UniProtKB/TrEMBL annotation:
It comes from the Bacteria. It comes from Solibaculum intestinale. This is Uncharacterized protein.
Length: 56
C-alpha cells in the first residue's frame, strides 16, 4: 500500500509526464492532495483518450 508522500510524488510525476507542460513541479508541490487528485484525474483521462485515439 502506498503512503501519502509516495502517492503525492507519483501523482506529481504523472501530471508532469502527461500534462504537456501545463504545470511545473514547483506549482504542483504547493497544492493540496485533493487539488492534486483533481488534476491527476483530468490528465489521466486525457492521457487515456490520447492512447485510445492512436489505436483506432
Amino acid at each position: 500500500m502506498m503512503g501519502r508522500l509516495e502517492k503525492r510524488y507519483c501523482w506529481i510525476m504523472d501530471i508532469l509526464a502527461w500534462g504537456h507542460g501545463k504545470y511545473t513541479e514547483e506549482q504542483l508541490e504547493k497544492l493540496t492532495m485533493p487539488e492534486l487528485a483533481e488534476i491527476h484525474s483530468q490528465v489521466y483521462h486525457q492521457h487515456l483518450e490520447e492512447i485510445q485515439s492512436i489505436h483506432l
